[in-house]
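From the methods appendix. Each design record in this collection lists the tokenized structure first, followed by the designed amino acid sequence. Records were kept in a plain field format so they could be parsed without special tools. The example shown here is representative of the layout used throughout.

RECORD:
FOLD TOKENS (331 positions):
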């Protein structure tokens, strides 16, 4: 019996040691597992925090593709012996005006081609009468190919304008949109996107000897230096020698309302034609109807406005080469 009791006691003690050993091993494994989990959480958190910080700095993280804004340009500054008018302003416009064009940037010729349907009839000197303001305003439309050669424009100058003193209109071929920037007497700039409400159309004149061009082009404000009021302009070309400009204005959150209408009459008579073929009187710069001449190396060339005159006198050889190349293409 004593031997049996001793064996039983020894077995129980051994079993206790085995159970205790298993428990210790389980605890060690649990500790290791917990340590591993904590390490993973720490690494994940650190990685997430680092990603958030870098993303905030714009270096990593999910990239958001921002849509670039259209580019608006400085008011025209003419030189080279032509008429001169200068206005200050930022070369870049609002940030919400319209989506940037996709693909390669348009060529200057593409931009000018988009502007020609309206420039053909608008370029020249006009006089407008504002119905509500009861004032007369001198209007001068001209080409601007100097301020930014890559982005030609037509410019409207109104020295004592009630709503703006200058408007610069260029064209975005990929979007089929006009981009206009106006500048007022206080140098406040407003940025607009324009589309046709009625596309250009040529109809025979009353005497049947020429054609009259009509269109309706509406400009809606997108961004401006002054957010307290908003404008909308509509140019309604009635014939070659008359157009209306409707002026809409909204203050604060109010709806746009018709503020005034400028009845605008050409000073003189337009001889523009729909086929844009003016023979020897073709403007060496714009291809429009030449109204005055410039001379280089003893040879005379026609220009249609003071803007084209200034561009020619600034770089005559380049413009003559382009002009001659276009003439050869037509042969």
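DESIGN:
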């Amino acid at each position: 019996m004593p031997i049996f009791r001793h064996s039983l006691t020894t077995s129980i003690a051994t079993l206790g040691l085995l159970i205790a050993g298993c428990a210790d091993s389980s605890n060690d494994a649990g500790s290791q597992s917990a340590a591993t989990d904590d390490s993973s959480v720490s690494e994940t958190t650190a990685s997430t925090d680092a990603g958030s910080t870098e993303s905030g700095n714009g270096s990593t993280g999910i990239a958001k593709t921002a849509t670039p804004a259209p580019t608006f340009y400085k008011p025209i500054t003419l030189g080279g012996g032509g008429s001169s008018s200068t206005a200050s302003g930022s070369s870049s416009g609002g940030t919400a005006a319209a989506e940037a064009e996709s693909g390669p940037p348009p060529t200057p010729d593409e931009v000018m081609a988009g502007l020609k349907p309206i420039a053909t009839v608008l370029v020249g000197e006009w006089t407008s009468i504002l119905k509500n303001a009861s004032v007369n305003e001198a209007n001068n439309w001209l080409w601007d190919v100097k301020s930014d050669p890559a982005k030609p424009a037509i410019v409207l100058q109104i020295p004592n304008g009630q709503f703006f003193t200058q408007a610069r209109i260029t064209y975005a071929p990929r979007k089929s949109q006009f981009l206009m920037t106006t500048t007022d007497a206080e140098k406040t700039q407003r940025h607009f996107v324009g589309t046709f409400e009625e596309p250009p159309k040529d109809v025979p004149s009353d005497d049947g000897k020429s054609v009259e061009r009509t269109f309706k082009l509406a400009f809606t404000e997108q961004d401006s230096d002054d957010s307290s009021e908003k404008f909308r302009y509509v140019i309604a070309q009635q014939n070659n020698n008359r157009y209306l400009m409707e002026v809409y204005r909204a203050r604060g959150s109010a709806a746009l309302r018709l503020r005034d209408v400028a009845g605008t009459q050409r000073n003189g008579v337009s001889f523009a034609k729909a086929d844009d073929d003016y023979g020897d009187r073709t403007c060496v710069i714009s291809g429009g109807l030449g109204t005055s001449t410039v001379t280089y190396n003893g040879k005379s060339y026609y220009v249609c406005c003071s803007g084209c005159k200034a561009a020619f006198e600034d770089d005559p050889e380049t413009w003559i080469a382009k002009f001659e190349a276009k003439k050869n293409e037509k042969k």
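APPENDIX NOTE: Helices lie at 2-57, 108-122, 306-314, 316-330.
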